[in-house]
Input
Amino acid sequence: MLRRITVPVLGCALLVLVLPEAAAAHRITGTGPTVVSFLRSGFEHMLLGWDHLLFVAGVLIMAGTARRAARLISLFALGHSLTLVLATLAGWRVDASMVDAVIALSVVFVGAAGLRGRPQHWRWFAAAVLGFGLIHGLGLATRLQDSGLSRDGLLPRVVLFNVGVEAGQLVAIGVMVLVGLVGRRIVRRAPLWQPISQIGLVAAGLAAVWLIAVAWVDEQDAKDAFAASGCRTGDRTELLWAAPAATVPKRFYGPEETAPDDAFAYVITEGYVVVEYTPRLSDGQVDRLRDFVAARDRIAAGTSPGQVEPLKAVTSYGTLTCPRFDLASLGYFVDRWSKDPRSRPFQ
Output
């Protein structure tokens, strides 16, 4: 029966190959001010984590029997639970991109191992599953800490997040088995689906490694360009005096318009980026800035009459100031903020 898991494996692998966005599987969203929100966040993260799901599916195919599959998945769960809790409590961080690459390679590993056939001795495979579980947990711990965790009540938050991850994993396994049972007739008539599925795992893992490497190079290039731009970032120093439930009627205010300060302050607390620009910008620069704002979500802009710098961008945690009109550096700042879990309002 476990061999029927090849159907969802192929679908997930093809999704990774077709959609580059699937490579960003470790972003954690949905954490909020309540402890229970971490349970939901862990659950959602696992269900959206293509790399975790592909690895688990590959282990299920490799196991061949339900008992062996349960043991191997338990080892994997033990590994990532251990490092998730310990690393988060101890404040250990690793390079998230490197961990993502190793996790993608774990998908390659389980696919390649399956192509060789089931081993006569399972200890080395079980040790590899445990080892990859430890690495998965380190990635989870790093991403979770990047979400801006408070040290107060940290243990119950981490434990509930891990419970959510395990619950999501159980649901995913159940769906894989259900889909596999539905597709078992197709698989019976196509005996090559199992090796094809394992080839799909290898291809998906290698494609993910390539996408991660390209994204890392692009990030380094953008970081170097930003460092050379003269723009600077720092902690937010502006006071936020916001009217309750204030709204911004529109997201861009021209040089002759008065931007609603109270509403801007409110949307900053809701995760927006507020761009302030000097009214002395040229008409062409104003048009380019208007197009920049229109092309992005959760960003608003207006003039600041007494401002010396051409551009300033403010979030709830930081401020960007640029000595010249530089939309590339502004875009780098906005994109980094949009990837920060703190940019999303509590749900």
Summary: Strands lie at 232-235, 273-277, 299-303, 311-314, 318-322.
